[in-house]
Amino acid sequence: MPARKLPQVVIIGRPNVGKSTLFNRLIGKRLALVDDQPGVTRDRRMGEAGLLGLEFEAVDTAGWEDEDDASLPGRMRVQTQVSLKGADAALFVIDSRAGLTPLDEEIGRWLREQEVPVVLVANKAEGNAGESGILESYSLGLGDPVPVSAEHGEGVADLYSALVPLIADKAEQLELEAEQAKAIAADELAARAEAAAAAGEEFELEEHDPKAPLSLAIVGRPNAGKSTLINRLLDEDRLLTGPEAGITRDSIAVDWEWDDPKTGQTRIIKLIDTAGMRKRAKVVEKLEKLSVSDGLRAVDYAEVVVLLLDATRGLEVQDLKIASRVIEEGRALMVAINKWDVADDPSALFNGIRSALEEGLSQLRGVPLFAVSAKTGKGLDTMLGAAFKLRDDWSRRVPTSALNRWFDDALGANPPPAPGGRRIKLRYITQVGTRPPRFVIFGSRLFDLPNSYERYLLNGIRKQLGFGAVPVRLSLKSPKNPYDDNQGGGGKFSGPKS
Question: pTM for the complete prediction?
Protein backbone atom coordinates (compact mmCIF):
# COMPACT_ATOMS: atom_id res chain seq x y z
CA MET A 1 0.00 0.00 0.00
CA PRO A 2 1.18 3.59 -0.62
CA ALA A 3 2.48 5.41 2.44
CA ARG A 4 -0.24 7.22 4.34
CA LYS A 5 -0.22 11.02 4.22
CA LEU A 6 -2.45 11.52 7.27
CA PRO A 7 -2.91 9.84 10.67
CA GLN A 8 -5.74 7.31 10.62
CA VAL A 9 -8.75 7.36 12.96
CA VAL A 10 -11.15 4.39 12.89
CA ILE A 11 -14.82 4.77 13.86
CA ILE A 12 -16.18 1.69 15.68
CA GLY A 13 -19.50 0.81 17.28
CA ARG A 14 -22.55 -1.40 17.10
CA PRO A 15 -25.13 -0.92 14.30
CA ASN A 16 -27.21 2.25 14.10
CA VAL A 17 -25.34 4.40 16.61
CA GLY A 18 -24.50 7.01 13.94
CA LYS A 19 -20.99 5.99 12.81
CA SER A 20 -21.59 6.86 9.15
CA THR A 21 -23.28 10.12 10.10
CA LEU A 22 -20.23 11.05 12.17
CA PHE A 23 -17.95 9.96 9.30
CA ASN A 24 -19.82 12.21 6.87
CA ARG A 25 -19.68 15.08 9.37
CA LEU A 26 -15.90 14.72 9.77
CA ILE A 27 -15.14 14.56 6.04
CA GLY A 28 -17.59 17.34 5.24
CA LYS A 29 -19.73 15.53 2.66
CA ARG A 30 -22.23 12.68 2.37
CA LEU A 31 -19.80 10.04 1.19
CA ALA A 32 -21.08 7.10 3.26
CA LEU A 33 -24.63 5.85 2.76
CA VAL A 34 -26.90 6.62 5.72
CA ASP A 35 -30.30 5.06 6.43
CA ASP A 36 -32.51 4.39 9.45
CA GLN A 37 -32.17 0.63 9.13
CA PRO A 38 -29.15 -0.96 10.85
CA GLY A 39 -26.27 -2.60 8.99
CA VAL A 40 -26.10 -0.22 6.02
CA THR A 41 -22.29 -0.02 6.10
CA ARG A 42 -20.55 -3.31 5.31
CA ASP A 43 -17.08 -2.49 4.02
CA ARG A 44 -14.80 0.02 5.69
CA ARG A 45 -14.64 3.32 3.91
CA MET A 46 -11.98 6.02 4.14
CA GLY A 47 -12.02 9.77 3.62
CA GLU A 48 -9.89 12.82 4.40
CA ALA A 49 -11.35 14.49 7.49
CA GLY A 50 -10.86 17.85 9.16
CA LEU A 51 -11.68 18.94 12.68
CA LEU A 52 -10.93 22.59 13.49
CA GLY A 53 -7.74 22.44 11.41
CA LEU A 54 -6.69 18.96 12.57
CA GLU A 55 -6.46 16.76 9.47
CA PHE A 56 -6.65 12.97 9.50
CA GLU A 57 -7.99 9.99 7.56
CA ALA A 58 -11.33 8.83 8.96
CA VAL A 59 -12.37 5.19 8.50
CA ASP A 60 -16.04 4.21 8.65
CA THR A 61 -16.66 0.57 9.60
CA ALA A 62 -19.52 -1.91 9.66
CA GLY A 63 -21.65 -2.22 12.76
CA TRP A 64 -20.22 -4.68 15.27
CA GLU A 65 -22.54 -7.67 15.78
CA ASP A 66 -22.13 -10.75 17.97
CA GLU A 67 -22.59 -13.43 15.30
CA ASP A 68 -20.68 -16.47 14.06
CA ASP A 69 -17.58 -15.57 12.03
CA ALA A 70 -18.94 -17.46 9.00
CA SER A 71 -22.17 -15.44 8.82
CA LEU A 72 -22.41 -12.15 6.96
CA PRO A 73 -22.63 -10.06 10.19
CA GLY A 74 -19.72 -12.08 11.57
CA ARG A 75 -17.59 -11.42 8.51
CA MET A 76 -18.45 -7.74 8.82
CA ARG A 77 -17.24 -7.75 12.44
CA VAL A 78 -13.95 -9.39 11.41
CA GLN A 79 -13.47 -6.62 8.83
CA THR A 80 -13.99 -4.05 11.58
CA GLN A 81 -11.43 -5.75 13.83
CA VAL A 82 -8.87 -5.84 11.02
CA SER A 83 -9.39 -2.10 10.37
CA LEU A 84 -7.80 -1.24 13.71
CA LYS A 85 -4.40 -2.65 12.68
CA GLY A 86 -2.07 0.25 11.97
CA ALA A 87 -4.59 2.89 13.08
CA ASP A 88 -3.45 5.85 15.18
CA ALA A 89 -6.68 6.23 17.19
CA ALA A 90 -10.22 4.89 17.42
CA LEU A 91 -13.55 6.62 18.02
CA PHE A 92 -15.86 4.24 19.90
CA VAL A 93 -19.37 5.52 19.22
CA ILE A 94 -22.32 4.69 21.47
CA ASP A 95 -25.94 5.85 21.36
CA SER A 96 -26.33 7.98 24.49
CA ARG A 97 -30.12 7.97 24.18
CA ALA A 98 -30.35 4.18 24.10
CA GLY A 99 -27.82 3.80 26.92
CA LEU A 100 -25.24 1.04 27.21
CA THR A 101 -26.08 -2.37 25.76
CA PRO A 102 -24.33 -5.73 26.28
CA LEU A 103 -22.89 -5.33 22.77
CA ASP A 104 -21.38 -1.95 23.73
CA GLU A 105 -19.77 -3.60 26.74
CA GLU A 106 -18.37 -6.40 24.55
CA ILE A 107 -16.84 -3.88 22.14
CA GLY A 108 -15.45 -1.90 25.07
CA ARG A 109 -13.75 -5.00 26.50
CA TRP A 110 -12.19 -5.76 23.12
CA LEU A 111 -10.96 -2.19 22.68
CA ARG A 112 -9.34 -2.15 26.11
CA GLU A 113 -7.20 -5.11 24.99
CA GLN A 114 -5.91 -3.23 21.92
CA GLU A 115 -2.90 -0.93 21.80
CA VAL A 116 -4.70 1.80 19.84
CA PRO A 117 -5.82 4.80 21.96
CA VAL A 118 -9.60 5.17 22.15
CA VAL A 119 -11.90 8.19 22.41
CA LEU A 120 -15.36 7.30 23.72
CA VAL A 121 -17.99 9.25 21.73
CA ALA A 122 -21.52 9.53 23.12
CA ASN A 123 -23.56 10.34 20.01
CA LYS A 124 -27.14 11.63 19.78
CA ALA A 125 -26.49 13.77 22.86
CA GLU A 126 -28.47 16.81 21.75
CA GLY A 127 -30.82 18.04 24.47
CA ASN A 128 -31.09 16.21 27.79
CA ALA A 129 -32.25 12.81 26.52
CA GLY A 130 -28.73 11.37 26.47
CA GLU A 131 -27.60 12.30 29.97
CA SER A 132 -28.27 8.90 31.57
CA GLY A 133 -26.48 7.08 28.75
CA ILE A 134 -23.47 9.38 29.09
CA LEU A 135 -23.24 8.63 32.82
CA GLU A 136 -23.54 4.88 32.16
CA SER A 137 -20.68 4.98 29.64
CA TYR A 138 -18.12 5.73 32.35
CA SER A 139 -18.40 2.06 33.34
CA LEU A 140 -16.67 1.08 30.07
CA GLY A 141 -13.35 2.17 31.54
CA LEU A 142 -12.36 4.15 28.45
CA GLY A 143 -12.11 7.59 30.04
CA ASP A 144 -14.46 10.54 29.88
CA PRO A 145 -17.11 10.27 27.13
CA VAL A 146 -17.31 13.09 24.59
CA PRO A 147 -20.98 14.09 24.05
CA VAL A 148 -21.70 14.92 20.40
CA SER A 149 -24.52 15.14 17.93
CA ALA A 150 -23.14 13.96 14.59
CA GLU A 151 -26.38 14.92 12.84
CA HIS A 152 -26.39 18.51 14.15
CA GLY A 153 -22.64 19.10 14.43
CA GLU A 154 -22.61 19.62 18.20
CA GLY A 155 -19.59 18.73 20.36
CA VAL A 156 -16.99 19.28 17.65
CA ALA A 157 -14.68 21.34 19.87
CA ASP A 158 -14.70 18.69 22.61
CA LEU A 159 -13.97 15.93 20.09
CA TYR A 160 -11.07 17.99 18.76
CA SER A 161 -9.66 18.40 22.28
CA ALA A 162 -9.83 14.64 22.83
CA LEU A 163 -8.16 13.73 19.51
CA VAL A 164 -5.35 16.30 19.41
CA PRO A 165 -3.13 14.66 22.06
CA LEU A 166 -3.46 11.30 20.29
CA ILE A 167 -2.64 12.17 16.67
CA ALA A 168 -1.16 15.71 16.51
CA ASP A 169 2.46 14.49 16.60
CA LYS A 170 1.79 11.89 13.90
CA ALA A 171 0.05 14.50 11.75
CA GLU A 172 3.05 16.82 12.04
CA GLN A 173 5.47 14.02 11.14
CA LEU A 174 3.48 12.98 8.06
CA GLU A 175 3.12 16.61 6.95
CA LEU A 176 6.90 17.05 7.15
CA GLU A 177 7.43 13.90 5.05
CA ALA A 178 4.93 15.19 2.47
CA GLU A 179 6.74 18.54 2.23
CA GLN A 180 10.05 16.72 1.72
CA ALA A 181 8.49 14.65 -1.09
CA LYS A 182 7.20 17.84 -2.76
CA ALA A 183 10.67 19.41 -2.55
CA ILE A 184 12.23 16.35 -4.20
CA ALA A 185 9.63 16.46 -7.00
CA ALA A 186 10.29 20.18 -7.55
CA ASP A 187 14.05 19.51 -7.78
CA GLU A 188 13.43 16.78 -10.36
CA LEU A 189 11.25 19.14 -12.41
CA ALA A 190 13.90 21.85 -12.30
CA ALA A 191 16.54 19.34 -13.42
CA ARG A 192 14.39 18.30 -16.40
CA ALA A 193 13.91 21.94 -17.40
CA GLU A 194 17.65 22.59 -17.11
CA ALA A 195 18.48 19.53 -19.21
CA ALA A 196 16.00 20.62 -21.91
CA ALA A 197 17.52 24.12 -22.00
CA ALA A 198 21.04 22.68 -22.32
CA ALA A 199 19.89 20.58 -25.27
CA GLY A 200 18.25 23.58 -26.90
CA GLU A 201 14.78 22.06 -26.54
CA GLU A 202 11.60 23.73 -25.37
CA PHE A 203 10.44 22.45 -21.98
CA GLU A 204 6.71 22.13 -21.35
CA LEU A 205 4.85 20.74 -18.37
CA GLU A 206 2.91 17.64 -19.32
CA GLU A 207 -0.88 18.03 -19.22
CA HIS A 208 -1.07 14.37 -18.21
CA ASP A 209 1.44 12.68 -15.96
CA PRO A 210 1.64 9.01 -17.02
CA LYS A 211 3.09 8.17 -13.60
CA ALA A 212 0.12 9.62 -11.73
CA PRO A 213 -2.15 7.23 -9.78
CA LEU A 214 -4.75 5.50 -11.94
CA SER A 215 -8.37 5.75 -10.80
CA LEU A 216 -9.86 2.38 -11.79
CA ALA A 217 -13.53 1.57 -11.07
CA ILE A 218 -14.91 -1.98 -11.23
CA VAL A 219 -18.59 -2.14 -12.19
CA GLY A 220 -21.05 -4.85 -13.17
CA ARG A 221 -24.11 -6.82 -12.18
CA PRO A 222 -24.42 -8.36 -8.69
CA ASN A 223 -22.27 -11.43 -8.00
CA ALA A 224 -19.94 -10.85 -10.95
CA GLY A 225 -17.00 -11.04 -8.53
CA LYS A 226 -16.00 -7.37 -8.26
CA SER A 227 -14.99 -7.44 -4.59
CA THR A 228 -13.30 -10.82 -4.99
CA LEU A 229 -11.23 -9.48 -7.88
CA ILE A 230 -10.05 -6.48 -5.86
CA ASN A 231 -9.18 -8.74 -2.90
CA ARG A 232 -7.14 -10.89 -5.28
CA LEU A 233 -5.22 -7.85 -6.50
CA LEU A 234 -4.57 -6.64 -2.96
CA ASP A 235 -3.73 -10.18 -1.80
CA GLU A 236 -5.85 -9.67 1.32
CA ASP A 237 -9.49 -9.90 2.38
CA ARG A 238 -9.93 -6.13 2.28
CA LEU A 239 -13.51 -6.21 0.99
CA LEU A 240 -16.41 -8.27 2.23
CA THR A 241 -17.28 -11.17 -0.10
CA GLY A 242 -19.55 -14.19 -0.02
CA PRO A 243 -22.27 -16.10 -1.87
CA GLU A 244 -24.93 -13.53 -0.95
CA ALA A 245 -25.82 -11.17 -3.79
CA GLY A 246 -25.56 -7.42 -3.19
CA ILE A 247 -23.06 -7.50 -0.30
CA THR A 248 -21.31 -4.32 -1.45
CA ARG A 249 -23.36 -1.18 -0.87
CA ASP A 250 -20.95 1.76 -0.72
CA SER A 251 -18.40 2.52 -3.41
CA ILE A 252 -15.12 1.68 -1.71
CA ALA A 253 -11.80 3.18 -2.89
CA VAL A 254 -8.51 1.51 -1.95
CA ASP A 255 -5.06 2.85 -2.86
CA TRP A 256 -2.71 0.09 -3.98
CA GLU A 257 0.82 -0.25 -5.37
CA TRP A 258 1.08 -2.56 -8.40
CA ASP A 259 4.41 -3.90 -9.59
CA ASP A 260 4.20 -4.03 -13.39
CA PRO A 261 5.85 -7.33 -14.38
CA LYS A 262 6.67 -6.03 -17.88
CA THR A 263 8.40 -2.78 -16.95
CA GLY A 264 9.38 -3.47 -13.36
CA GLN A 265 7.81 -0.14 -12.37
CA THR A 266 5.69 0.32 -9.27
CA ARG A 267 2.45 2.08 -10.18
CA ILE A 268 -0.21 3.43 -7.82
CA ILE A 269 -3.82 2.46 -8.53
CA LYS A 270 -6.95 3.68 -6.76
CA LEU A 271 -9.19 0.62 -6.99
CA ILE A 272 -12.89 1.46 -6.68
CA ASP A 273 -15.37 -1.29 -5.84
CA THR A 274 -19.04 -0.57 -6.57
CA ALA A 275 -22.41 -2.09 -5.76
CA GLY A 276 -23.91 -4.50 -8.29
CA MET A 277 -26.18 -2.75 -10.78
CA ARG A 278 -29.41 -4.59 -11.60
CA LYS A 279 -32.08 -3.61 -14.08
CA ARG A 280 -33.76 -0.38 -13.05
CA ALA A 281 -37.17 -2.08 -12.85
CA LYS A 282 -35.84 -4.50 -10.22
CA VAL A 283 -34.32 -1.78 -8.04
CA VAL A 284 -37.20 -0.85 -5.75
CA GLU A 285 -35.71 -0.58 -2.26
CA LYS A 286 -34.44 2.83 -1.20
CA LEU A 287 -31.10 1.47 0.00
CA GLU A 288 -30.35 -0.31 -3.27
CA LYS A 289 -31.23 2.86 -5.19
CA LEU A 290 -28.74 4.77 -3.04
CA SER A 291 -26.09 2.08 -3.65
CA VAL A 292 -26.56 2.19 -7.43
CA SER A 293 -26.45 6.00 -7.44
CA ASP A 294 -23.25 5.84 -5.40
CA GLY A 295 -21.76 3.44 -7.96
CA LEU A 296 -22.69 5.72 -10.85
CA ARG A 297 -21.01 8.65 -9.10
CA ALA A 298 -17.89 6.51 -8.77
CA VAL A 299 -17.96 6.00 -12.54
CA ASP A 300 -18.16 9.76 -13.07
CA TYR A 301 -14.95 10.30 -11.09
CA ALA A 302 -12.99 7.31 -12.43
CA GLU A 303 -10.52 7.47 -15.30
CA VAL A 304 -10.81 3.89 -16.52
CA VAL A 305 -13.83 1.66 -15.84
CA VAL A 306 -13.73 -2.14 -15.97
CA LEU A 307 -17.09 -3.74 -16.73
CA LEU A 308 -16.85 -7.17 -15.10
CA LEU A 309 -18.88 -9.99 -16.63
CA ASP A 310 -19.68 -13.41 -15.19
CA ALA A 311 -18.39 -16.12 -17.53
CA THR A 312 -21.14 -18.46 -16.33
CA ARG A 313 -23.81 -15.98 -17.46
CA GLY A 314 -22.23 -14.30 -20.48
CA LEU A 315 -23.19 -10.84 -21.75
CA GLU A 316 -26.67 -9.59 -20.88
CA VAL A 317 -28.66 -6.50 -21.85
CA GLN A 318 -27.96 -4.93 -18.45
CA ASP A 319 -24.21 -5.18 -19.14
CA LEU A 320 -24.65 -3.22 -22.36
CA LYS A 321 -26.67 -0.57 -20.51
CA ILE A 322 -23.92 -0.18 -17.93
CA ALA A 323 -21.30 0.04 -20.70
CA SER A 324 -23.31 2.68 -22.56
CA ARG A 325 -23.57 4.76 -19.38
CA VAL A 326 -19.78 4.62 -18.95
CA ILE A 327 -19.23 5.75 -22.54
CA GLU A 328 -21.81 8.53 -22.23
CA GLU A 329 -19.92 9.86 -19.22
CA GLY A 330 -16.74 9.95 -21.30
CA ARG A 331 -14.83 7.37 -19.24
CA ALA A 332 -12.36 4.95 -20.81
CA LEU A 333 -14.04 1.51 -20.86
CA MET A 334 -12.68 -2.01 -20.85
CA VAL A 335 -14.52 -5.31 -20.38
CA ALA A 336 -13.27 -8.30 -18.38
CA ILE A 337 -14.87 -11.76 -18.32
CA ASN A 338 -14.44 -13.10 -14.80
CA LYS A 339 -14.62 -16.71 -13.58
CA TRP A 340 -12.72 -17.82 -16.68
CA ASP A 341 -11.46 -20.86 -14.76
CA VAL A 342 -14.98 -22.35 -14.79
CA ALA A 343 -16.13 -21.16 -18.24
CA ASP A 344 -17.70 -23.65 -20.65
CA ASP A 345 -16.23 -23.57 -24.18
CA PRO A 346 -14.05 -20.48 -23.47
CA SER A 347 -13.14 -19.76 -27.09
CA ALA A 348 -16.76 -19.63 -28.27
CA LEU A 349 -17.71 -17.56 -25.21
CA PHE A 350 -14.98 -14.99 -25.83
CA ASN A 351 -15.78 -14.63 -29.54
CA GLY A 352 -19.50 -14.45 -28.84
CA ILE A 353 -19.08 -11.66 -26.29
CA ARG A 354 -16.73 -9.80 -28.64
CA SER A 355 -19.34 -9.92 -31.44
CA ALA A 356 -22.15 -8.88 -29.09
CA LEU A 357 -20.11 -5.90 -27.85
CA GLU A 358 -19.38 -4.76 -31.42
CA GLU A 359 -23.08 -4.92 -32.22
CA GLY A 360 -24.44 -3.57 -28.95
CA LEU A 361 -21.90 -0.73 -28.53
CA SER A 362 -21.97 0.68 -32.03
CA GLN A 363 -20.98 4.11 -30.69
CA LEU A 364 -17.55 2.78 -29.68
CA ARG A 365 -15.95 -0.10 -31.56
CA GLY A 366 -13.05 -2.19 -30.34
CA VAL A 367 -13.56 -1.94 -26.57
CA PRO A 368 -10.69 -3.92 -24.97
CA LEU A 369 -11.85 -7.37 -23.83
CA PHE A 370 -9.99 -9.61 -21.38
CA ALA A 371 -10.47 -13.05 -19.87
CA VAL A 372 -9.63 -13.02 -16.15
CA SER A 373 -10.10 -15.05 -13.01
CA ALA A 374 -10.35 -13.45 -9.60
CA LYS A 375 -9.85 -16.91 -8.12
CA THR A 376 -6.57 -17.82 -9.87
CA GLY A 377 -5.30 -14.35 -10.85
CA LYS A 378 -5.29 -15.17 -14.58
CA GLY A 379 -5.07 -12.17 -16.88
CA LEU A 380 -5.09 -9.50 -14.15
CA ASP A 381 -1.61 -8.09 -14.84
CA THR A 382 -2.41 -7.91 -18.57
CA MET A 383 -5.66 -6.10 -17.81
CA LEU A 384 -3.96 -3.55 -15.54
CA GLY A 385 -1.20 -2.84 -18.06
CA ALA A 386 -3.84 -2.22 -20.72
CA ALA A 387 -5.72 0.08 -18.32
CA PHE A 388 -2.70 2.38 -18.03
CA LYS A 389 -2.31 2.41 -21.84
CA LEU A 390 -6.01 3.21 -22.21
CA ARG A 391 -5.70 6.06 -19.68
CA ASP A 392 -2.75 7.47 -21.66
CA ASP A 393 -4.83 7.45 -24.89
CA TRP A 394 -7.77 9.01 -23.06
CA SER A 395 -5.52 11.81 -21.75
CA ARG A 396 -3.47 12.46 -24.90
CA ARG A 397 -3.29 15.76 -26.78
CA VAL A 398 -2.42 15.65 -30.50
CA PRO A 399 0.23 18.14 -31.64
CA THR A 400 -1.35 20.90 -33.74
CA SER A 401 0.82 20.13 -36.78
CA ALA A 402 -0.14 16.43 -36.76
CA LEU A 403 -3.81 17.29 -36.30
CA ASN A 404 -3.80 19.70 -39.25
CA ARG A 405 -1.99 17.22 -41.50
CA TRP A 406 -4.55 14.55 -40.72
CA PHE A 407 -7.44 16.99 -41.30
CA ASP A 408 -6.11 18.11 -44.70
CA ASP A 409 -5.50 14.51 -45.76
CA ALA A 410 -9.00 13.44 -44.61
CA LEU A 411 -10.67 16.24 -46.58
CA GLY A 412 -8.51 15.52 -49.61
CA ALA A 413 -9.26 11.80 -49.60
CA ASN A 414 -13.00 12.33 -49.12
CA PRO A 415 -14.18 15.93 -49.66
CA PRO A 416 -17.39 17.08 -47.92
CA PRO A 417 -20.53 16.74 -50.06
CA ALA A 418 -22.11 19.63 -51.98
CA PRO A 419 -25.89 19.36 -51.51
CA GLY A 420 -27.76 21.58 -53.97
CA GLY A 421 -24.48 22.37 -55.70
CA ARG A 422 -23.20 24.40 -52.72
CA ARG A 423 -20.14 22.87 -51.12
CA ILE A 424 -19.91 22.56 -47.36
CA LYS A 425 -16.72 24.20 -46.16
CA LEU A 426 -14.79 22.67 -43.26
CA ARG A 427 -12.14 25.27 -42.42
CA TYR A 428 -10.05 23.91 -39.55
CA ILE A 429 -10.00 21.62 -36.52
CA THR A 430 -8.71 22.11 -32.99
CA GLN A 431 -8.47 19.92 -29.91
CA VAL A 432 -10.17 21.72 -27.05
CA GLY A 433 -9.68 19.19 -24.28
CA THR A 434 -8.67 15.76 -23.04
CA ARG A 435 -10.04 13.12 -20.65
CA PRO A 436 -11.96 12.42 -22.87
CA PRO A 437 -10.38 13.88 -26.04
CA ARG A 438 -12.57 16.67 -27.43
CA PHE A 439 -12.30 18.22 -30.89
CA VAL A 440 -14.12 21.09 -32.62
CA ILE A 441 -14.35 21.54 -36.39
CA PHE A 442 -15.19 25.02 -37.68
CA GLY A 443 -16.87 25.58 -41.01
CA SER A 444 -19.95 26.80 -42.86
CA ARG A 445 -23.28 25.23 -43.91
CA LEU A 446 -22.79 22.58 -41.23
CA PHE A 447 -26.52 21.90 -40.92
CA ASP A 448 -26.25 20.11 -44.24
CA LEU A 449 -23.33 17.89 -43.25
CA PRO A 450 -24.53 14.25 -43.22
CA ASN A 451 -24.07 12.16 -40.10
CA SER A 452 -22.18 9.64 -42.21
CA TYR A 453 -19.47 12.23 -42.90
CA GLU A 454 -19.21 13.08 -39.22
CA ARG A 455 -18.70 9.37 -38.50
CA TYR A 456 -16.03 9.30 -41.20
CA LEU A 457 -14.13 12.10 -39.44
CA LEU A 458 -14.66 10.58 -36.01
CA ASN A 459 -13.40 7.18 -37.13
CA GLY A 460 -10.40 8.85 -38.73
CA ILE A 461 -9.54 10.59 -35.45
CA ARG A 462 -9.69 7.27 -33.63
CA LYS A 463 -7.81 5.15 -36.13
CA GLN A 464 -5.25 7.52 -37.63
CA LEU A 465 -4.52 9.67 -34.59
CA GLY A 466 -4.18 6.68 -32.29
CA PHE A 467 -7.13 7.10 -29.91
CA GLY A 468 -8.33 3.54 -30.43
CA ALA A 469 -11.24 2.56 -28.21
CA VAL A 470 -11.55 5.64 -26.03
CA PRO A 471 -14.62 7.89 -26.30
CA VAL A 472 -13.90 10.90 -28.49
CA ARG A 473 -16.12 13.99 -28.59
CA LEU A 474 -16.52 15.80 -31.91
CA SER A 475 -18.40 19.09 -32.23
CA LEU A 476 -19.12 21.21 -35.31
CA LYS A 477 -19.37 24.99 -35.08
CA SER A 478 -20.35 27.64 -37.61
CA PRO A 479 -19.57 31.38 -37.67
CA LYS A 480 -21.21 33.52 -35.00
CA ASN A 481 -23.99 34.92 -37.22
CA PRO A 482 -26.19 31.99 -38.29
CA TYR A 483 -28.48 34.20 -40.42
CA ASP A 484 -25.85 35.69 -42.71
CA ASP A 485 -25.68 33.57 -45.89
CA ASN A 486 -22.43 35.29 -46.81
CA GLN A 487 -20.87 33.71 -43.72
CA GLY A 488 -22.06 30.23 -44.49
CA GLY A 489 -25.80 30.16 -43.81
CA GLY A 490 -26.20 28.59 -40.42
CA GLY A 491 -24.48 26.46 -37.88
CA LYS A 492 -24.61 23.02 -36.38
CA PHE A 493 -23.55 21.58 -33.10
CA SER A 494 -23.25 17.83 -33.38
CA GLY A 495 -21.64 17.00 -30.10
CA PRO A 496 -20.88 15.43 -27.99
CA LYS A 497 -20.37 12.41 -30.25
CA SER A 498 -18.13 9.52 -29.39
Answer: 0.72
